[in-house]
Write a structure and sequence with these properties.
Elements (H helix, E strand, L loop, with lengths): L1 E9 L2 E8 L8 E9 L2 H8 L30 E8 L11 E4 L6 E4 L5 E2 L6 H4 L2 H14 L6 E5 L3 H10 L6 E5 L3 H9 L4 E3 L6 H4 L7 E4 L4 H10 L5 E4 L15 H4 L3 E4 L15 H15 L5 E6 L3 H10 L6 E5 L5
Parallel strand pairs: 8-9, 8-11, 9-10, 11-12, 12-13, 14-15
Antiparallel strand pairs: 1-2, 3-4, 3-6, 3-15, 4-5, 5-7
């Protein structure tokens, strides 16, 4: 048996390469992968080559050391089971189901403290949403929705849908979402949005009346949506920007309403916690919330495609060429039996 690893080799080119399965060192474990999830936003930009070439892959994840220079591995949502343990590792790790922020590959070795054991009541297909749901939790924390507020969410991809599902648990006056795809808008309302509209819908400006939304989220990945969010926001409104645009330039209209309406743009990124909260919150506490929300939301219902790892190129081609047909794709490595 060989280890299979996914490499990005050039714009719109990926390859699955083989190598011997590594043996764990004394303080490592060997993990066999069951599922990994493709990040629709980030990995589509990477697949298209729309990333800043001088930017680190991820400074906060050990397995993503290095930068965006071909060929490279990527991915950060993988679930599997410990298959072997090193001589100095607690034998209790043997057979444990784990989550890892790790690139797409069939086997890998890691230190146990870089792995997250899965609660026994959470299925692999729900656990693979942990990074995106953690992002959604962080977005809600950064936006700080209040009782009776009017909230507008731009973009209903996976992160947008999960954010909508979380916001729907708040006693908001209005929760409206925007997406260009009909299927996503319909799913958004099933998850709790009061209304979901296309970005070109002329009634959008009337939904919130002259005061506009109190809180907006830009999660579409489109810089144009950020300008729309600025035009729609209420006086002193908060706009949380969770999109990563890569090399796409965001030309903002800051000379008009943005200035006089005293709008606030808030950058949100899951690698860190808002410094005003970090005296009480750390990532461990945030993870407790994420596990709770995984149990409540059951995000595996957002999976639209399950593709064998050996056919991973087809998964990226699907996101690139037929984005209307896909919400979440997972790569499968073997059956769960």
């Amino acid at each position: 048996m060989k280890r299979l690893s996914l490499f990005f080799t050039a714009p719109r080119r990926v390859a699955v390469e083989t190598a011997p399965i590594p043996a764990p060192a004394h303080r490592q474990v060997l993990v066999k992968t069951w599922l990994s999830a493709i990040s629709p936003g980030t990995e589509t930009l990477i697949y298209r080559g729309q990333f800043p070439p001088d930017m680190a892959l991820d400074e906060n994840i050990e397995s993503l050391a290095g930068d965006f220079r071909y060929p490279f591995k990527y991915g950060y949502s993988l679930v599997g089971q410990v298959q072997a343990v090193g001589a100095e590792v607690d034998p209790a790790w043997q057979g444990r189901r784990v989550f890892a922020f790790h690139p797409h590959e069939s086997h890998f070795v890691a230190a146990p403290d870089t792995l997250i054991p899965l609660p026994t009541d959470i299925a692999f297909e729900d656990a693979v949403f942990l990074p995106n749901l953690e992002t959604a939790v962080n977005l809600v924390m950064d936006g700080r929705p209040m009782l009776g507020e009017r909230v507008l969410v731009w973009g209903q991809g996976v992160v947008g849908l999960l954010t909508t599902a979380l916001l729907a648990r708040f006693p908001l006056e209005k929760l409206v979402t925007v997406d260009r795809l009909t299927a996503r808008r319909e799913l958004s309302q099933k998850l709790g949005a009061h209304l979901s509209l296309a970005p070109e819908d002329e009634t959008l400006v009337q939904i919130f009346g002259p005061t506009g939304p109190d809180l907006s989220y830009e999660l579409s990945g489109s810089p144009a949506a950020l300008n729309q969010a600025i035009e729609q926001a209420g006086f002193a409104g908060r706009i949380v920007v969770g999109s990563w645009y890569g090399r796409k330039q965001a030309t903002l209209n800051l000379g008009g309403r943005f200035h006089r309406a005293r709008l606030r743009l808030i950058s949100s990124q899951v690698s860190t916690i808002d410094p005003t909260l970090s005296g009480r919150w750390d990532k461990a506490r945030r993870f407790k919330v994420v596990w709770q929300m995984l149990r409540l939301l059951k995000p595996s219902r957002l999976i639209t495609h399950r593709i064998p790892f050996a056919e991973a190129a087809a998964a990226y081609q699907l996101y690139d060429e037929q984005p209307d047909d896909v919400i979440q794709t997972v790569l499968t490595y073997q059956s769960s039996t």
